[in-house]
Fold these 4 entries.
Entry 1:
Amino acid sequence: MPTDQKVMLVTGGSRGIGRAVVELAIEQNYRLCINYAQAKREAESLLELAGKSGVEAIAVKADVSEKNQTDELFKKIDSRFGKLDVLVNNAGIVANASRLDAIDDDRLQKILGINISGAVYCAAAAVRRMSTASGGRGGSIVNVSSIAAQLGGPNEYIDYAMTKGALDSMTTGLAKEVASEGIRVNAVRPGLIYTDIHASGGAPDRVDKLAHLVPMQRGGTAREVAYAILWLASDEASYVTGSFLNVSGGR
Ligand code: NAP
């Protein structure tokens, strides 16, 4: 295995957009750490795919909202690959549609923990490994935000939208903080994408029901988001940092 092959960590890589990122990264010959929370079988199926393609990959169970589990996740990357080139901060959840004044504290703490704290833990651990100021070789971080950060999620999930707004602020600040240390930090903002996240928020038909609100009049695929993420992660985007790529059909 050539040592210049890049190593990518995809959080929440087992299903949906993260899975599409892993599949495309396998095609592009990355070495991979596929993080998941529950979906062991789905993660293992990606290991099989990687194996068939001659790509080195590991699957690591870790709840990104638990700092000790995130620390262990990065230690596994250290021991297996000895470096990290790309972090795709993708793990995220929504809850059932609700007005803000009906959101209970358990729900609020859970979504803040996964969507914000988890992304910060992972970005911080990645920066410590990538920064040229601490002996690293530079790298790229792509945060998976949402067009909801701009729309605000009224009557559905303001809590979710605000976590993505926080991710956007982190993207802007961290991009500036580490730009001179060889690390680029960017974000994609997907719109309505066909994944199971909508069913997990109690609305399996959400994409088709809301497609008429999209200028392109359709939902997007996880693969369409993955192309944008892989481009931002790549050397083709070498002068791009602190940028946001809306993958939302014009919404
Ligand atoms: P999904 O199909 O529900 O997949 C979510 C992924 O995140 C799964 O791999 C899941 O792991 C993982 N995950 C959940 N909680 C986790 C935790 N605590 N620790 C580690 N991994 C965890 O969702 P998706 O639609 O692909 O969403 C991926 C990202 O895109 C999210 O950040 C979401 O906010 C964002 N996004 C999605 C859309 C959309 O329309 N789909 C639009 C805008 C933004 P398990 O499989 O193990 O449960």
Entry 2:
Amino acid sequence: MIFGSENAVPKYSVISMLDISYELTRTKKEKPDQTKLGFGRYFTDHMFIMNYTEGKGWHSPRILPFQNISLSPAAMVFHYAQEMFEGLKAYRTPAGEVQLFRPEKNIERMNNTNERMCIPKVNPDDALQAIRAIVDVDRDWVPSVEGASLYIRPFIIASDPYLGVRISNEYLFIIILSPVGAYYEQGINPVKIYVENEYVRAVKGGTGFAKVGGNYAASLIGQKKAEEMGYAQVLWLDGIHRKYIDEVGAMNVFFVIDGKVVTPSLDDGNILPGVTRASCIELLKSWGIPVSERRISIDEVVEAHKSGKLSEAFGTGTAAVISPIGELNHGEKMILNDGKIGPISQRLYDNLTGIQWGKLEDPFGWTCKV
Ligand code: COI
């Protein structure tokens, strides 16, 4: 039951490599109202934790009751931000089963981030085993109401107590779980986006492609500015030319111009290789809708809007899935598709969420049961 339950799809490694120890809680928490979850406010009964020590590698994998952790105030993560995180979800199918969506993609990205941040890599099989084990222990926390899921947050922090600037010799790999509803209060309704012209999120050679807290910390000021002006989020432009589109808020971004779908390419290393982004590209290709990954300037978007060729724009991410853009402000306001969700955004949302929640067939083999 704990790992590799009978219905597990054997496409993933089922060789138990981590010897996980279990300390289960005696006092289970009261579960929140599934219709009022919001995002990231509630945490389940347990957590996974594993240590890294130089010379010993990753060791002591364990599942514990959800609890505070104790760290030295000198722990390097607090001072030099050597850390990373991931985000994926577990979904309740109509048959009551629990499934994950492309966890191997998150694990691959986790190790790419680790490489950039000089954090030791985690054996992908071990990472998958840890994710499955913690979800299995807290499987009764996977919500069953429409649109709700269990958000899985693996993260690694440098725990070495040392104030010199160097690579940490000690780390903690932790996985916590949070039952979630819609990321944005507006749900799938289109959001208003401000094109940021002062601050940037990433530059070539930086950490834009990596999932690190620093990227999000640096973005907060733009988000604050946008919110003060009545916008939900920011459209980020590149840090060098200040004209090529990077991401929208904490999501990848897509535009539908003249019937063709375009999204910024990953080539410059600025863009997070989103799992939802990759899945949208694959779905669009499977439907025969032209989709290209390339540089897109804000001028091209403005021109396309002026000539009536910009029919849709939307953000993609694990948390919000698809977030349509109803208005873009780049000096002047551009209203997209009358502020309503467009047909391509809707089709992607319906199909992705259908596969994720097990309501539609999964022709790509993206899901795996826990
Ligand atoms: C995602 O949607 O994948 C995200 O990374 C959002 C998260 C930072 C809350």
Entry 3:
Amino acid sequence: MSLLMEISENLQKGRAKVVKELVQKAIDEGMDANTILEEGLLHGMGIIGGKFKNNEVYVPDVLIAARAMNTGTEVLKPLMVSSGVKAKGKVILGTVKGDLHDIGKNLVRMMMEGKGLEVIDLGVDVPAEKFVEAAIENNADIIACSALLTTTMTEMKNIVEKVKASSIGDKVKIMIGGAPVTDNFRASIGADVYTADAASAAEEALAICLA
Ligand code: B1M
């Protein structure tokens, strides 16, 4: 079995320690960080996602796979994040209220940090008010929100309304993303930017900060 398949298989079984060792092995063998992420870690998470949907695995299985995923991406972090450069802009990031999914958000953070942006990560289940307060306190350029549930993506509308009604309404840009989110949805709630994946979120965020 290839090393990438071993990473995927062990992630699916939730073996965080083994995943960590295998990701390190892949790095030591000179494998590119993006290949390890896409073809090892995300491949495994994709399979778990499909099984979860079909009721072949349940929440505890998905939780331990998610923990293994986060452990694996932490090992990749130094390769994806440049250090010692002055921040090119400031981003307030979080998963919206009612939503506990953080793997995509964590990838967005890593990719943005990799572009030299300072990211203030508010975590998961973040109320709209907290996004606004943090953006004002930190004089942020961007508020970036992630949602994975059709029931929580509607919270993004609330965030847009609260931002527009605040003192930073004209200054801060609102970026949104997550599996159920689309560009049509973005337009319908008046957010500024939608991107489908973490890498393009980082590119768009950098473009906003350099504009
Ligand atoms: Co949840 N879950 N989950 N889950 N879970 C989904 C999302 C689901 C699609 C599974 C399914 O098939 N049924 C479904 C949602 C259905 C819907 O709303 N339409 C679902 C459900 C129903 C639930 C619960 C309600 C289950 C229950 O309790 N009965 C519950 C809700 C809890 C809550 O949040 N309140 C729940 C719980 C969980 C776990 C806790 C077990 C776990 C999360 C653990 C964690 O995150 N630490 C979990 C997981 C892991 C998943 C799946 C399997 C995988 C999600 C993931 O991490 N994908 C997911 C099924 C699936 O997506 N196939 C599922 C990998 C990640 C890299 O992708 O986050 O999409 P993603 O990020 C992508 C892009 O979306 C984008 O970039 C990333 C790629 O580069 N992106 C952005 C994300 N944020 C962005 C922000 C941006 C730009 C791009 O700009 C700011």
Entry 4:
Amino acid sequence: MKQDSFIPLDFIERTDDEMVARSAEFLQLIQQRRSVRDYSAREIPRQVIENVIRAAGSAPSGANMQPWHFVVVTDSAVRARIRDAAEQEEREFYNHRASAEWLEALAPLGTDERKPFLETASCLIIIFLKKFSFNASGKQFKNYYTMESVGIASGFLIAALHNAGVATLTHTPSPMRFLNEILDRPHSERAVMVLVAGLPSEDATVPDIARLPLEEIASFIDG
Ligand code: IYR
């Protein structure tokens, strides 16, 4: 039942032709997105970062709890600490923790424990998931579908950055508890990923990998 106050939906209805054209245009734009590991020193305007985080914050979330927090880091001393801690975890991962099967799956990407982009890219956006929220009087509320919600918001963020002309890399050192400590975030939050954002270096390369065709990722059960 509609109990709270409701307002009219602001929605632009498009013709079929417009829908097809817009979907094709977006497809072309988003298919150009690649995960980038080689960055130039060029800085991204703060306003771009603020706008893309606003875009991410507009994502749907369980019960509209908006269970996310974004920490933007440009400070070089903090970045050095993050790189140091991340590379320590990555060394463990590549030398001990990862199974042979996992290392084999990663081989085409050419990744290893060295993460220079954590210091060279314009900024890092660390995405935290909030298991709980607190109201003005400090009462704790459980958030719902947090992983799904933060996943959607992260997708919005990556797409918004790409649309603005900013390259990204989703970096997931594991475990990521060190980020709570370095960035002074509470225990009710957990880092989900480090989103590296910046401009690619002139000699940037990316692995020669392909995306699955539509037939392999979708089925249509038509009526
Ligand atoms: N976190 C490691 C390993 C890694 C894991 C996956 I799955 C990737 O798609 C890429 C890397 C790293 O960042 O190197």
